[in-house]
Amino acid sequence: MHRKRHDILDVRDRSGSVKDLSVPDTTKRLNAREILADIQKGLPDIELMKKYGLSAKGLLSVYDRLQRAGLLDPAQLTQDRIDSESARIELNDVQTIAPVSVPFSMWTFKCGGWIFSSPAVSDKAIVFGSWDWNLYSVARETGQLNWKFRTGNVIRSSALISGRTAYIGSWDHHLYAIDVETGTLKWKFKAGREIWCSPAIGEDRVIFLSSDGMIYALDINNGRPAWRLRVDSPFFSWTESAPTIIGSMLMCGSHRGILYSADIRSGGIVWEFKASGPVNSSPTFFDGLIYFGADDGNLYALDPISGTEKWRSSLKRAVASRPAVADGTVFACSLDGSLHALDAQTGAIQWSFQRLRNLFSSPVVLDGRLYTGCTDHRIYALDAKTGSVAWSFETGGQVFSSPRVWNNVLYVGSNDGNLYAIVLK
């Protein structure tokens, strides 16, 4: 006797009509027409899983069988659907969202490309970059365009505003200094390769890391190089670790897995700390410790003076975003869709928040609330003490941009090409 296969025959009978669908990880037989209609209506994965009692693996099995039967076009499965990696997460591991105080969008501004860039906020303007090659300035209160400045390639970096100048890196290899009021170019400097991460400012120098493996320090007024320091290979050194300034020292990660401390004035290395994987996470300094994550799945706490390790905590998957710290707790996202709260002095995990999609956005803490974006298209607001969801706000695309909060309004970009201003209740 041949064992029956769970394949196309479970979707269509011999006449070609659609019939019930059997799924290996559930005892129920699913109505194929019903679940197909729900998928085509755009019902989110988590809602499909709850409605039909499926695990993530079971839902992937449904998608596969419907496609093989010719009932579901792969184009209908947009990039926000689960993948085989996230299918390891079972439904019971994912927290149910029960919004209690949902904010509303005050305004949106539409540009011509994805917005990975995190917004920089000033008294009157929001400045951000886009994959459409432009740096934008929009009015903070209304979202009306003030100006846009076109670079020569994608802007993945986030802008830094200091005084009347916005500094931004582009994949065209240039760091630009732009007048915040007028959008005119003050100066530009060409590095050896693309600039992925955001610049920092210390002691009249603007400092950034390029994909050519160099940290550059430029005169803040004219862009002339003060020094450069090689920290990575000139051939492959993609990293998104932005420099952090602590007094006269800077801290910056590298693709080779080293966190560097260097003197701002001379560029001389003060100390090096070796992790077990690339350091894409930007360091955070708080209350005498420096916190950062690495692709080895660890979150680290170091003494900023000596580089001595105080503790490390395994979060199991790569930590690519910048940690946030408040009230004795450090918050960090890992690439299994988790956001963790850890004791800032010991590294002990206090709670974890789990999603089905990845969290690349760096969390922000304000007044007991933790805000972060997710590739499931949503912005989440969590209780910082418990990790429970206060509310979520759905955009039209994946959210890699990190939120910024100013005067009770949250500003964030999405890969639907919109910058959102969300009023916080």
UniProtKB/TrEMBL annotation:
Every Pyrrolo-quinoline quinone repeat domain range: 243-422
PANTHER family: CELL SURFACE PROTEIN (PTHR34512), OUTER MEMBRANE PROTEIN ASSEMBLY FACTOR BAMB (PTHR34512:SF30)
Native species: Desulfomonile tiedjei (strain ATCC 49306 / DSM 6799 / DCB-1)
Pfam families: Beta-prop_ACSF4
Upper taxonomic lineage: Bacteria, Pseudomonadati, Thermodesulfobacteriota, Desulfomonilia, Desulfomonilales
Protein name: WD40-like repeat protein
